[in-house]
Every structure is written in C-alpha cells, then in structure tokens.
Amino acid sequence: MTEARVPDRLPAGLLSHPEMIAACRRRDFASVFRLLKLAGIYPSLIARACDMTPSRVGEVMSGKRKIEKIDLIERIADGLHIPGRMLGLSNRPWEQAGSVPQSRRRPPESSAGTRSLNAPIDPELFVSHLRCTMPGHYKAANLLGSRHALDAVTRHVQLLDRLQQDAEGRARDGLLTIGARTAEFLGWLNQDLGDFDRALYWSDRAMEWSQEAGDDVMAAYVLFRKSNQATAQRNAQKAVSLARAAQRSVGATHRIRALAAQQEAQGHALMGNPRFAQEKFDEAHEVAASPDDSHADDALDLAYCTPTYIEMQRANCLIELGDPHTAVGMFEAELRILPPIYRNDQGVYLSRLARAYAVSGEPEQAAAAADRALSIAIDTESARAMSELSAAGRALQRWSAVPEVATFTSRLTLMSGGSPLDR
Asked: Which residue intervals make up region (Disordered) (predicted)?
C-alpha cells in the first residue's frame, strides 16, 4: 500500500479560505492543523511531514503548546506546502522551483503562438514522441487528476498548432491526426477541471483538425465528446442530437457507438423519458459487452468503454428518473469492480452514490460515501466531482443535524471556498 503523504499542492479552496488566511497570518497553528484535518490531512500525517511527534501535534491542536520558533515554522511551511507569504516568510525554495499556482506559472495562450522556436523540430519525430507519451498522460489524469496532465498537454497542442502551419504533405497530415487526438484530450482535461469555454474551444479544434486530416474515427469521437459536454451543461436536446450524429457517422466504431448510445440515453433521461433512456442504455450495454476486433480506434483512450461504465451512467440517470434505491445498488456493485486506475472517476461515482443515498433517505450512508468522494476530489481537483458533491450536499440539507452530515458539509464548504450548496 502506498504511504499517505501531504499533497504537493494544497487545495486552492483551503488556501484561499478566510479562516486559513487569518490562522496563518496569526501563526495560529492549532487552527491551521484543525483546518488541514478537515481537508483529510490528519495529525499523524502532519507530524510525519513536519518532523514532529504526533503527541506534539496533538498538544498544538489542543492549545497546550504554541509554535514560535522560526525554524519549526519554516519546517511546517515546507512540510505542508503552505506558501511562505501566508506565514510571513519569504518564498520557500519549493515555490521558486515551480510549485506555484498554475495561473502564475503558465504563459498566456494568447502569446504562445508568437514565440519562435529556437531550432526546427522534425514534425515526424514529434508525432512519434506524442504517440508514445499520450498513454502516460491518460493514466496520470485517470489516477492523479487532470491537473497532472494539463500543462504538458497544453504545451504539446500549442507546439503542434505552430508546426502544422508550416508543414506540408505527409508531415502535416501526421501533425493534424495526432493534433486532433491531443486537442480532444485537452478539451476533456479542461472540462474535468470546470473550464467549459476552453473545453469547447479545444473540442472544436479537434473536430477541425480531424476533418482536415480525413480522420473519420476521430470526428465521430469528438461528436460523442461534444454530446457529453452538452449533458454536463444539462442541454438535453443538444446532447441527444449530437449523440445521434455520432452514431450515424461513418467513422463510428464499435466502442464509439456504445458511448454515443449511452450519451443519447442520458439526454433522454434529462428530458424525463425513461423508456427511451433505458432502451438506449440496453443498446449501449450490449454493444460494449460484445467483442470487437477492428482496432480502428486503438489510438484513442477508449479503455473505459466497458459494461461497468455504461451501468454507472445508467445508475446516475435513475436518480433523475425517481428510482434512487436501484441506483444505490448499481453504484455499489459497479464500484466494487471499477479498476483502481480510474481513481478520478471513482470520486465522481462516489459523489453520485452519495446523492442516491440522500434521495433514498439514508443520510449516514450518503455522508460516508460523500466524505470518501471529497477526499479524492481534493486530491484530483476535479470540478466534475465537486459539482456532484454539491448536488449531494443539497440533497442532504434536511439532515443537517445528523453529525456525519454536519461534518461532511463543513468539509465541503471549506474546500469550496464558501457555500457550495448555492451552486
């Protein structure tokens, strides 16, 4: 089992929370440690990260001991990754090495296209490099969260965009083909992190490049992805029409048709059409479960297209359709067999399980699932999971006096930098 550790980046909601800012300014480490505990960083982990004994951490939290020595304050800042300025210190070495907020260290995209390359890059060599590295980016996003892949993939796409403008013939075709796949993935990363404007922009670029390259498989997949974006924004009619377009597409492979069919089912569920929704889910499940030897879409990250994935989406729609009890059983069963690599998705599915429990009138079970989901969401920074957790929180509001619910709501509010239940 991997040893627990303090994350390389504390949640932005925690660092920007007024209580955390005030506690750090006062160097009130009893309050700092208490807030970290709410974020899932427990006293034993604090002790290990700061080279303190657990008993000493406990004494600090109980108010029996104060921390005043500057060397220990610096050790706490470095061990817990609290920016130096928050504690009245100079910037820490790890901040200067690059562990600063994304908004401060990523160059604006508007200027990226004007930077000239120091030396020409062989387009075919770069395409080969990307084909080898993309599977690693997929795994990082699945296991650790989209933020872990975002910067590298963004830089790759920006460079691809510049290279294809000057390339010709086969070299340009190769750049457009891998560019479409990389831009689509960048759209997904931004969607997972809650930036829909940028997600839609990169999905549109992926569609443009796939059509220019004559890549019908990629074009069909982008139609599915745009349907997924419409569902996430609760635009049911658009979700259904785009999903149908994906299924009609000449490039729609076995797995793309399964994905598009379940996406159409989600659109029908949003419109309150349970019969159409269940029929399309059945169709998607059957297609996903049947063998496919075509390998036409092997370059895409479609390993997640399994019967388990289809049933997870069906379970979520059952909450919308008024059958949360069945949804609970399906989520529990499918979560038990979800591969560990899909940890980012696990946070989303646990959040949905929590809402199903809440709508079913089981607040303790809902809070337990939600608390597990929140710990994952804090680590992966997934806006998808936080949005689902906010929905679970709203469903739990009438049980605010239940201790487990109160604890979860407190953690969720802290991590959201305010009141997430109004969203």
From this structure: 93-117
Which residue has tokens 């994952």? Answer: 376
In contact, 131 and 149? CB cutoff 8 Å: no
Long-range contact list for 219-223, CB < 8 A, 24+ apart?
219/249, 219/251, 220/246, 220/249, 220/250, 220/251, 220/252, 220/253, 220/256, 220/260, 221/184, 221/246, 221/251, 221/256, 221/259, 221/297, 221/300, 221/302, 222/180, 222/184, 223/249, 223/260
For tokens 């560990």, the residue is 340
Q: Backbone dihedral region of 40: left (phi > 0), alpha (psi from -120 to 50 degrees) or beta?
A: left
Residue type, 295: H
CATH of 12-98, one of 3.30.70, 2.60.40, 1.10.3470, 1.10.260: 1.10.260
Ramachandran area for residue 338 (φ above 0: left; ψ -120 to 50: alpha; else beta): beta
What string of pLDDT tens digits covers the 423 residues of the chain?
445 566 777 777 788 888 888 889 889 999 999 888 877 788 888 888 888 888 888 899 988 899 988 889 999 999 998 998 899 888 888 876 544 333 333 333 444 444 444 457 888 899 999 999 999 999 999 999 999 999 999 999 988 888 888 888 989 999 999 999 999 999 999 999 999 999 999 999 999 999 999 999 999 999 999 999 999 999 999 999 999 999 999 999 999 999 999 999 999 999 999 999 999 999 999 999 987 767 777 778 888 889 999 999 999 999 988 899 999 999 999 999 999 999 999 999 999 999 999 999 999 999 999 999 999 998 898 999 999 999 999 999 999 999 999 999 998 988 876 555 554
